[in-house]
Amino acid sequence: MVISTIICEFDPLHNGHKYILDCMRESGAECIVACMSGNFTQRGSPAYFDKHSRAEAALNCGADLVTELPVTFACAGAERFAFGGVSILNALGCADSIFFGSECGSTELLRKAALALEGDAVKDRIREKLVTGVTFASAREQAVRELCGDEAADALRRPNDILGIEYLKALSLLKSSITPHTVKRLGALHDSAEADGGFASASRLRELALEGASIQEYVPAGAFEVFGRSLAGAQPDRMKALERVMLYRLRMMTLSDMAVLPEIGEGLENRLYSAVRSGVSVSEILASVKTKRYTMARLRRILTYALLGITASDMLPSPPYIRVLGFNGTGRLALSEIKKRSSLPIITKVSELSKLNDACRRAFDLESRCDDIYAISGEAVRPCGTNQTGQLISPGGKLPRPISLPVQHIL
Length: 411
Known about the structure:
By secondary structure, the chain is α/β, with parallel strands linked by helices. 49% of the residues lie in helices and 9% in strands. It has a seven-stranded mixed beta sheet with strand order 5-4-1-2-3-6-7, sandwiched between helices.
């Protein structure tokens, strides 16, 4: 069985995502495995649609098996996000390829940038730049531009290209045999406020949903079938719903508590502690802490770590298990083979945790606590325990019809 993989958030799964899934199938994939963020995402906020809904949408639109990227990797910077996802897919033991979208559409260009970043000369130049007070992203881009040219450096300005580079770095670090393929993005760019020919970014679709506008035009039918159930009622702003909880957690923290938050350092805890003492909203705290050295995305993630009670000691170097969220008939067959070959334990039901080590149980408990916080962010407060009681999604073995689009964008 030819197994192709993808790392994703699918919040929500839209026509651009469906196009990549169709490209994977038309490129020979007999089984598609998705490693998907759980209820908190890389942008440092709760997912608009819960993980079980997104897993169901993925299975309706071409995926065969959906696994979960643990929160300490899902809610992290690009490098850690990518390494966590690639680690899980590599641990399957039978993945043939990984597909990802990119702005440049060139695997070779992204590989060139990845190799540059792994070189000692670039690393030394980055350290020199950081001393001047610029952000890490800016220092990295400047170093690559000076040593490797504009083409590779320009890729470090584009969000999907950046993730692609990190996927390639992770594959190299793990000495993985998985073959990378990039698919050139169609339509609207990442985080674009505009739609383009039936394609809109996930961020734009979340904005439309919050405004009460229809997203059906930009979402494949199999996904809208799932998301439409959520969209039928009043739409909560989950981050806004959790804001006072976040303010409470921050106000209860000591300076020492803040010092052990992930991604904090260089005295940033002092700025944060001072901002929390005077700030009356999350946006006000962020504005007080923001400097040219710290990106807003990094600061939002730090506040989310505080909300979730995640400390630096929780940031394991790699995922300790593979959690299955759902599968169809094809995915079930693949899962049987994966269980024989995986280098990590597979969790399909909570009772299997009793057979696992302490690291696995602690990581699962953390995931469960985070899901319990997510459960109070909706229109109605849900009870605790959704991570332990959520049922596997298994819609059957039929494959959906693909969108009729050319596959020349696969490079």
